Structure formats: C-alpha cells, structure tokens
Amino acid sequence: MKPTAPEGAYDLRGADRDVSGSVATIAAVATAVAAGQGSVAIVRLSGPEAEAIGRRLFRPAGRQPWDSHRVLYGHLIDPTSGERVDEALLLLMRAPRSFTREDVVEFHCHGGLVVVRRVLELVLAAGARRAEPGEFSQRAFLNGRLDLTRAEAISELISARSQRAAQLAMGGLDGGLQRRISGLRERLLDQLAELEARVDFEDDLPPLDGGGVVAELEAVRQELATLVAQSRAAEPLRRGLRVAIVGRPNVGKSSLLNRLSGRDRAIVTDLPGTTRDLLESEVVLQGVPLTLVDTAGIRATADRVEALGIARSHEALAGADAVLLLFDLAAGWTAADQELRERVPAGVALLVVGNKADQAGLATGPVAEGEAATQAVVAISALHGDGEAALAAALLERCGAAASEGLVAALNSRQADLAAAAAVDLERSLEAASQGLPWDFWTIDLRAACGQLGAITGEEISEAVLDRVFSRFCIGK
Ligand SMILES: Nc1nc2c(ncn2[C@@H]2O[C@H](COP(=O)(O)OP(=O)(O)O)[C@@H](O)[C@H]2O)c(=O)[nH]1
Ligand SMILES: [Mg+2]
After folding, report:
1. What is the pLDDT of residues 40-76, one digit of tens each?
2. Which atom of ligand 1 lies at the shortest distance from residue 355's CA?
3. Of 354 and 22, which is predicted with more confidence?
4. Index of the ligand 1 atom closest to the CA of residue 267
5. Are 266 and 275 in contact (CB under 8 A)?
6. Is there a contact between 71 and 55 (Cβ–Cβ < 8 Å)?
C-alpha cells in the first residue's frame, strides 16, 4: 500500500545519450589548479569511452597490461602530432568498481596550469564532454553508488573551512542522516498506508486507532523539529560567519583584527583615520570559520578618501552576519557610540565590546549586559590579548553558533528547509485530526510530508531538483 516514487524516476541517463545511444563520457580536472602551485593534477574521465580515450592518448612505458585498478606509467601524447605532452600516471577503474560505477580513467599529470589545460583539451578532442559541476557525484548517485545525503556530505567536506566543519561533514558521510530521515519517512508511510486503507476499505478493516496515529505523527514532527534546530545551529559552522568590526576611530578595531587573526594584517597607529578600506581576514574561532572585516572608523570627516572608507564601513554593517561594535573603555560610552549602535540593522547579531580595559584599569572578561557605566558585554584589551576567549565565546553565543557544540551530524540548509516543511505538513495533518475530520483529510498533508522527506534522501525527487542539488558541487566532483 505504500506510495513509491514513479518507476524509472532517476533514470536521467536517457537525456544524455549521444547519437549512438550510449551515455556520454565526461571529463574534468578533479584537483584544484593554480598557476605555479600543486605538483600533481588529476584529469578524470567517466563513461563508456573512458578507456578508449585513455588508450588513444596514453603510451605506457614498456609492456604493462591495461588492468583495472593498476597504475600505468608512461606519457600523454597528442595523437595528431605524436608530441609528448606530459609524463604521467594512468589509473584505470573499470565499471562497476569506481566512484561513478562507470569506467573511469584518471590521468595523474604534472600540476602546471598549461599542462593540465592541454590534457583536458586533448581528452575533449578525443570525444569526452566537459563535466558539469557535481556530475561525477550525480552519476554515482544515479547508479546507486551513494545516496543523496552522502553525496551532499562529500561536497560539504570539500568546502569545509575548519576542522570542526569537516568533522560535521564526515558525520553526514557515515549515512546516519540518511538512515534517520528514511526511518522517519517509513514511519509516516506506515501511517499513511493505514489511513488510505481506511479511506478505501473502511468497512472491511478493523477500526483505526486515531489516537495512535496522532501520537506517531506528533513524535515524528518533534524529531523533525529537533533536526531542524540542530541544522540551524550548525549553519555558521558550514557557511562561516561574516563579522564586521566597527567603531569610532582609534578604539582599536585594527588591533583586534590583528589579535584575532594572529598576525599583523592591518596597519595600527595612534592616528585616527588610519584604516581607509575594508580589510578581510579569515580566522577560525573555536572551530567556527569567520571572515573578520576591519573597517574605517566612523566619524564626520572632510577627507575624501576617509569618507569613502566610511561609506564602505556602513555597507559592511549591512552585509555582516554579526557586528562587533568596539568602543574605548577609557573614554567611556559616548553619544557617537550610541549613534553607531543604532545604525546596526535589525537582524544582525550585535556584540558590544569595550576595548583598552588595561587603560581603564578594568578587569577583562564578560560584563553584565546593559551595565549602565560601560554598555559592554565583554571587556578586552586588544593590545595585550586579555579577554580574547570570553570575546570568542560571547560572539559565537550571539550568532547562535555555540549551540553547534557537540553536534556529530546535521542536515544542510536544503535538507533542513525540507524537514521544516514536512513538520508544517504534519502540523496541518494533526490539525485535521484534532478537528475530527475524515481520514482523507489527514492524508493530504501526510503525503506531502512524506514527499518532503523523500526529497531529502533522494527516494522521491524530481530531475530538476536533483540537477539543482548537484549543480552546487564543484566541477570535477
Ligand atoms: N592601551 C591600549 N591601547 C590599545 C588597545 N588596543 C589598541 N590600542 C591602541 O590604540 C591605537 C589605535 O588602534 P587601532 O587598532 O589603529 O584603532 P582603529 O582606528 O580602531 O583601527 C593604537 O595606538 C593602538 O596601539 C588596548 O587594548 N589597550
Ligand atoms: Mg584601523
């Protein structure tokens, strides 16, 4: 009785067949390539022509056999001229023992930009097509090599900007999320089957325990709500946070940026108006990746360059996830500080920080909020580094990132949106139940909830949505 995805829903391969009716062979550079960097680069091919293209372009040294999962040493040749393009290794992985479950050939060539481009061009000229972003993973998914949440976890692992973010992605990779969501979906499908049976054959079946259905839907709804909350808490870990340091001139913004990034990034002087432009620095605070933005001190000025810098400070305020409003404890909280505070857009997390605690003769660390004398949430000394840990803790708390502590795995934002939508569907279904409406009123939203969860796991998903998911992956993955 369980509704299932339409037959053949995942067979997108038909859309990508060449004239002979076979699946296209795709190719991409699988490693990051930068001029003058990286000693080895991998050009990867997947599809029925992969081995034939490999044989056309690669001359093994000696008489090594073309065995699967064996590395060949030799040269990449331009077949039109016979010219040696690179000295390289070739790795052949015949279907189905490969990432895509198709025939895969990898050329491990030298990492120079020019060489890698040339190899890719030769591969394309030999009949492969340039892979779309995420297309290897998409094929792996379509061929049943990995499920959707695992594929997404791999992509997340690649883009992780901190150790903790990488660990979270690894948590998604072990399949726990897939099992959990699948399990919840199964429970809903069971209830749906019961209800649908009653709609069709009420008289032939034992009476349905409506209370039991309600309890089960409510239990699933609560689990979904927990998963959504965990995902939102993990969001800063995944995406990183953009934190603008703003304040009047000379309060120590640049000093704080240097302190947190552990190097002399910004110019610090005792002259107000030193910082003229936005300056960004990538740091990791307690596992959370941050982009710190140092800004020009905000004040009225006749200097045109400084005024342009100040305009950028205002933009930085609007584009940040969080604002660190710094003021000088020795000078106290001034009307200008208050004015700045009022400019912080609603919805941006704000942390007021008093600097130069050393000069003010104050202890550093967390300070009770709203304390009339200082307005400080945290007191620090950017010069000496005191209060840094309390500042980090308060900032992450303010951004909701502290709640990610101890999370092993979490839904990504696409998955969390679907889980949240499923929870809303269940609420509606429960509403129909509480109004005592007939069974078929319960089923409409319940079926929708199953669909949302199926779109998380990939068990019930449209081609268009799949394409969108994989298009966010990087090329070559
Ligand atoms: N005593 C003391 N001086 C500080 C502290 N932080 C910054 N300063 C000094 O304040 C002046 C202005 O610092 P700077 O970082 O350029 O401020 P900005 O204009 O806000 O970027 C410099 O002379 C710094 O050495 C602090 O915590 N204690
Ligand atoms: Mg500065």
Report:
1. 899 999 999 999 999 999 999 988 899 999 999 999 9
2. 27
3. 354
4. 16
5. yes
6. no
Q: Which long-range contacts (CB under 8 A, 24 or more apart) does 334-341 make?
A: 334/248, 336/248, 336/298, 336/299, 337/247, 337/248, 337/375, 340/246, 340/247, 340/248, 340/298, 341/375
Most confident of 258-272, 316-330, 358-372: 316-330
pLDDT grade, residue 9 (50/70/90)?
A: very low
Nearest CA to 397 among 370, 372, 417, 378?
378
Q: 382 CA distance to ligand 1 centroid (A)? A: 7
Which domains are seen in the chain, by residue range? 14-145 (3.30.1360.120), 241-320+322-398 (3.40.50.300)
State the pLDDT at residue 36.
Answer: 67
> Which residues on neighbouring strands pair with residue 171, listed in sequence order?
none
| pTM flag (> 0.90) | no
Tell me what pLDDT residue 369 has.
59
**How many CA atoms within 13 Å lie on the side-chain side of 77?**
16
Residue 5's Cβ-side half-sphere holds a number of Cα atoms within 13 Å equal to 17
What is the number of residues in the chain?
477
- Ligand 1: residues with CB < 6 A are 247, 249-255, 268-270, 274-275, 297, 355-356, 358-359, 381-383
Mean pLDDT of 20-40: 80
Rounded-to-5 percentages of helix, strand, coil across the chain: 45, 20, 35
- Which residues sit opposite 349 in a β-bridge? 322
Ligand in nearest proximity to the CA of 359: 1
- What tokens were used for 189? 């499908």
Find out whether the peptide bond into 96 is cis, omega within 30 degrees of 0: yes
Please state, in angstroms and rounded to a whole number, the distance separating the CA atoms of residues 260 and 282: 10
pLDDT given at position 6:
36
Which ligand 1 atom sits nearest the alpha carbon of residue 258? Answer: 15
Residue 205 has pLDDT above 80, yes or no: no
Span of 155-164, 240-249, 426-435 with lowest mean pLDDT = 155-164
Q: In the predicted model, what is the mean pLDDT of residues 193-218? A: 84
For ligand 1, mutation pick of 253, 256, 268 (most atoms within 8 Å of CB): 268
Q: Tell me, what DSSP letter sits at residue 17?
A: B
- 67 C-alpha to center of ligand 2: Å? 62
pLDDT tops 90 at residue 175: no
Ligand 1 atom nearest residue 248's Cα: 20
Closest CA to 324 of 297, 289, 353: 353
In this prediction, residues 310-319 reach a mean pLDDT of: 82
